[in-house]
């Protein structure tokens, strides 16, 4: 099985790089994963990552992109609740990439 | 000789519990597990299955399966006892054999 | 929206004992991406899926009951519960989770998603559907 090294520990990930075990997540997981994608995480990224973690905590699922976009718009403002803003932050897809950094499974419905 | 009967299906979906109480010898014990725990709730049409048999049989319900399904103890038919996993083991030890009604 | 089809998912199984309830929920969420007109019906033991206060800690199974609260975010706000099924089980609407959706066209007002309907009413609702999927 593949793994990534975070804080000196090897954490299992699946073939697409998602954490195998939700409970392994620490903020450094996101930093390490982003580095592998040549991405430097900013506050704007963290806003979305933290939002996703809260969403999962409440509903036990990673939201679909459409749902994420709408919910971000409601919580963080209209200027952030649109695909353009989210895709600029997460060019591999706000659902897939942000969920991965947040330690969540791939969004339900994401193929 | 005594038997512990386990039933893991809802009596609203299958007749396992009805078959069990019809065929269980007097003095036996019936433990409701998994979806079987719904049968231990009072107020429903099938509550009569246990109501009519509880004089002859001892009824138990597995607490963790009850909690998983959102059933609180005050909803149980009078006389049905809640056991945890340890209680489950004790029941299997106390009885001579276990008969599972699927 | 004129080409949207009416999809009905019928849920008849209790949660946890079998995988049907969770499978249905996943299919519903995946299907929601296609922006169809989706309704859910809970009948027979399916009504148990919506029970309040589910706590699976001790059985070690994922508690997916909080996920029903996300259905509103997915624009799924027609959740029919059969009255006869509730009554047969000694349950009332109070035993079920309170599910709501926010109406974007009404200043995000929270509205109830669950509608308790009789068998006869449900039969008519089923008759109006284009696609019916049963779990």
Q: What would you call the structural class of chain B? A: alpha/beta
Distance between the termini of chain C: 27 Å
Q: What is the mean pLDDT of chain C?
A: 95
- Percent in helix of chain B: 25-40%
The biggest beta sheet of chain B is recorded as: 5 strands, parallel
SSE topology string of chain B: EHEHEHEHE
**CATH-defined topology of chain C:** Hypothetical Protein Ychn, Chain: A
The CATH architecture category of chain B equals 3-Layer(aba) Sandwich
- Helix count of chain B, per DSSP? 4
Query: Would you list the SSEs of chain C in sequence order as H and E?
Result: EHEEHEEEHE
What percentage of residues of chain C falls in helices of 4 or more residues? 10-25%
What is the tally of beta strands of chain C?
A: 7
The value of Rg of chain B in angstroms is 12 Å
Strand content of chain B: 15-25%
Number of helices of chain C: 3
Q: What is the CATH-assigned architecture of chain C?
A: 3-Layer(aba) Sandwich
Overall tally of domains of chain B: 1
CATH superfamily of chain C: DsrEFH-like
Low-confidence spans of chain C: pLDDT under 50, at least 5 residues?
none
Helical/strand content category of chain C:
alpha/beta
Which structural traits does this protein have?
heterotrimer; B: 102 residues; alpha/beta; Hypothetical Protein Ychn, Chain: A; 5-stranded parallel sheet; 5 strands; 30% helix; C: 135 residues; 7 strands
Notes on the structure:
The complex is a heterotrimer of chains A (111), B (102) and C (135). Chain A is mainly alpha-helical and 111 residues long. Chain A has helices spanning 27-36, 43-59, 65-76, 83-89, 94-101; strands spanning 2-6, 9-13. Chain A has one domain (2-101): DsrC protein, C-terminal domain (Arc Repressor Mutant, subunit A, Orthogonal Bundle), CATH 1.10.10.370. Chain A contains 5 helices and 2 strands; from the N terminus they run ββααααα. The longest helix of chain A has 17 residues, at 43-59. Chain B has a 5-stranded parallel β-sheet. The mean pLDDT of chain B is 97. Chain B has a single domain (3-96), classed as DsrEFH-like (Hypothetical Protein Ychn, Chain: A). With 102 residues, chain B is an alpha/beta fold. By secondary structure, chain C is of the alpha/beta class. Chain C has one domain: DsrEFH-like (Hypothetical Protein Ychn, Chain: A). In chain C, the strands form 2 sheets. Chain C has a 5-stranded parallel β-sheet. In chain C, strands 4-5 form a two-stranded antiparallel sheet. Chains in contact: A-C, B-C. The interface between B and C is medium-sized, with 26 and 26 residues.
């Amino acid at each position: 099985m593949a793994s990534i090294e975070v804080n000196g520990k090897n954490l299992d990930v699946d073939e697409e790089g998602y954490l195998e075990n939700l409970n392994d997540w620490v903020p450094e997981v996101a930093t390490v994963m982003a580095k592998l994608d040549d991405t430097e995480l900013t506050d704007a990224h963290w806003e979305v990552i933290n939002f996703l973690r809260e969403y999962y905590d409440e509903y036990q699922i990673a939201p679909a992109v459409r749902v994420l976009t709408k919910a971000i718009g409601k919580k963080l403002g209209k200027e952030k609740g649109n695909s353009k803003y989210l895709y600029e932050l997460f060019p591999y897809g706000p659902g897939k990439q942000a969920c991965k950094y947040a330690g969540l499974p791939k969004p339900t419905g994401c193929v | 000789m005594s038997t512990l009967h386990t039933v893991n299906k809802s009596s609203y979906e299958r007749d396992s519990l009805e078959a069990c109480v019809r065929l269980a010898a007097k003095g036996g014990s019936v433990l409701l597990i998994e979806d079987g725990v719904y049968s231990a709730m009072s107020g429903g049409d099938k509550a009569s299955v246990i109501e009519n048999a509880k004089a002859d049989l001892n009824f138990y319900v597995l607490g963790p399966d009850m909690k998983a399904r959102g059933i609180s103890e005050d909803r149980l038919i009078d006389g049905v006892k809640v056991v945890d996993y340890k209680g489950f083991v004790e029941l299997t030890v106390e009885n001579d054999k276990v008969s599972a009604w699927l | 929206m004129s080409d949207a089809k009416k999809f009905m998912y019928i849920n008849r199984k209790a949660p946890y004992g079998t995988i049907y309830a969770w499978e249905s929920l996943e299919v519903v969420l995946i299907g929601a991406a296609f922006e169809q007109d989706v309704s859910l019906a809970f009948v027979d033991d399916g009504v148990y899926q919506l029970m309040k206060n589910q706590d699976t800690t001790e059985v070690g199974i994922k508690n997916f009951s909080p996920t029903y609260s996300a259905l509103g975010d997915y624009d799924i706000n027609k959740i029919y519960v059969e009255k006869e099924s509730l009554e047969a089980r000694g349950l009332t609407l109070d035993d079920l989770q309170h599910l709501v959706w926010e109406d974007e066209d009404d200043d995000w007002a929270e509205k109830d998603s669950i509608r308790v309907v009789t068998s006869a009413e449900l039969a008519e609702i089923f008759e109006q559907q284009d696609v019916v999927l049963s779990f």
